[in-house]
């Protein structure tokens, strides 16, 4: 895998993150739950950090930034997984957990593969 391919694959996963973030941000539950607002802010921070290197086609910076921000992103995903049953048991929230967790797992795997392939120092 090369850096550009890794960036593109992570960006595909990021589209899922963005959709969950948008769903959470605009949910009625977010108006009432500070932890849920922390989640959608954490997801936004991850996506925002990757936007500039993606637009400029700077795959090396993209991968370094994704790697650097992964732990905070993971923290936001884990928080959502933990609080989701208390926030809402609606199928939309349950599927948001699945989508977000899957995207996070795939992003982590792609970052680890980039490290293995020597694309990250």
How would you characterize this protein structure?
The protein has four helices and no strands. It is an all-alpha fold and 121 residues long. The protein has one domain (3-116): Up-down Bundle (Four Helix Bundle (Hemerythrin (Met), subunit A)). The radius of gyration is 15 Å and the shape is elongated.
Brief summary:
With 121 residues, this protein is mainly α. Helices cover 83% and strands 0% of the residues. The chain has one domain: Four Helix Bundle (Hemerythrin (Met), subunit A).
- CA radius of gyration is 15 Å
C-alpha end-to-end distance:
15 Å
Unreliable spans: none
Give the SSE order as H and E letters: HHHH
Provide the helix percentage: over 70%
Structural domains: how many:
1
For the record, the CATH architecture stands as Up-down Bundle
From the spread of the alpha carbons, the general shape counts as elongated
List the helices and strands and how they pair.
Layout: H1 3-25, H2 34-56, H3 59-87, H4 91-116
Keywords summarizing the entry:
121 residues, mainly alpha, Four Helix Bundle (Hemerythrin (Met), subunit A), 4 helices, elongated
